[in-house]
């Protein structure tokens, strides 16, 4: 599906040109209610979008503004374990970029792999480890796609330093714990064994989840500026088996919403007062 077809459909409903796209992870969808003058479009009405099936994911695109910055938020997302391909999962990013978004704030609920994390902490992503799809960043890639001009030119490091800085400033101002970290993406939908958590810690992961990387890779390919945020919804205990549950993940998300909101507002304030400057990568 061509993103332009989806963008044309959206344009028939709203002509708002968002500057910033926001993806709201498990339990974090409530932030969409903070959008001023919202125009809500259900995912399943948009050509090329699927139906969001994971619980805690509303399945809506919400256009409007926050801190006077035009935004579009995905309240919910698509995951590989729901049966979608990498390209399906990333398609909304392409569409949000086509309707105007040059920045992406992507959030998720994630398991805390680093021993220092507590439930509710926020991790500002500096990098990721992709265990989601083997060798290739896309599972629909014909060889020529991988050999496309420029294919190997984009640096793997994709997260924006100035947007990260704004996130840390928001945490300091609001008084909550916020750390830099590396996100490890699995295919899901199973949570990890203790041995897997230990392995992930040893290879340099701080948090683990089942999303985000396909969206970040798409946004990076499109030249978008990216802020990645994980909300620690459960912590890996190296000493005893603790069963993670999606209800616990959703509950932690709702509790941490106020922190995510503080970060999003700060980043948007900075974007509106002066376009955030990042050092060249
Ligand atoms: O990454 P988000 O969508 O926040 O969801 C996270 O929470 C779910 C597991 O509870 C998985 O889908 C995991 O990726
Ligand atoms: O512990 C976890 N593992 C993988 N994905 C997750 N999403 C939330 N918590 C977790």
UniProtKB/TrEMBL annotation:
Signal peptide feature range: none
Organism: Rubripirellula reticaptiva
Database matches in SUPFAM superfamilies: Purine and uridine phosphorylases
Claim: Ribosomal protein is one of the keywords in the record: no
Family: Belongs to the PNP/MTAP phosphorylase family.
NCBIfam families according to UniProt: PNPH-PUNA-XAPA, PRK08202.1
General function of this protein: The purine nucleoside phosphorylases catalyze the phosphorolytic breakdown of the N-glycosidic bond in the beta-(deoxy)ribonucleoside molecules, with the formation of the corresponding free purine bases and pentose-1-phosphate.
CDD domains documented for this protein: PNP-EcPNPII_like
GO molecular function, one term: purine-nucleoside phosphorylase activity
GO cellular component terms, semicolon-separated: cytoplasm
Protein's recorded name: Purine nucleoside phosphorylase
UniProt: a purine D-ribonucleoside binding residues: 192, 234
């Amino acid at each position: 599906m061509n993103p332009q077809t989806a963008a044309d459909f959206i344009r028939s409903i709203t002509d708002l040109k968002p500057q910033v796209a926001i993806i709201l992870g498990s339990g974090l969808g409530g932030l969409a209610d903070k959008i001023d003058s919202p125009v809500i479009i259900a995912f399943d009405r948009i050509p090329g979008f699927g139906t969001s099936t994971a619980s805690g994911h509303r399945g809506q695109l919400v256009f409007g503004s926050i801190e006077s910055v035009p935004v579009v938020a995905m309240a919910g997302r698509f995951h590989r374990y729901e049966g979608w391909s990498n390209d399906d999962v990333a398609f909304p990013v392409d569409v949000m970029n086509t309707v105007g978004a040059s920045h992406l704030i992507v959030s998720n609920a994630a398991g805390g792999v680093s021993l220092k994390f507590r439930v509710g902490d926020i991790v500002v992503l500096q990098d990721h480890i992709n265990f989601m799809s083997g060798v290739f960043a896309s599972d629909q890639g014909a060889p020529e796609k991988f050999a496309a001009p420029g294919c190997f030119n984009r640096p793997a490091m994709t997260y924006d330093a100035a947007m990260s800085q704004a996130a840390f400033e928001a945490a300091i101002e609001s008084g909550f714990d916020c750390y830099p970290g590396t996100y490890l993406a699995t295919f899901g939908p199973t949570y990890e064994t203790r041995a897997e958590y230990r392995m992930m810690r040893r290879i340099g992961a701080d948090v683990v989840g089942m999303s985000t990387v396909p969206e970040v890779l798409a946004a990076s390919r499109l030249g978008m500026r990216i802020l990645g945020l994980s909300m620690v919804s459960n912590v890996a205990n190296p000493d005893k088996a603790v069963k993670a549950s999606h209800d616990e993940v959703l509950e932690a998300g709702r509790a941490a919403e106020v922190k995510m909101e503080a970060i999003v507002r700060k980043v948007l304030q900075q974007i509106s007062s002066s376009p955030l400057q990042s050092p060249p990568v």
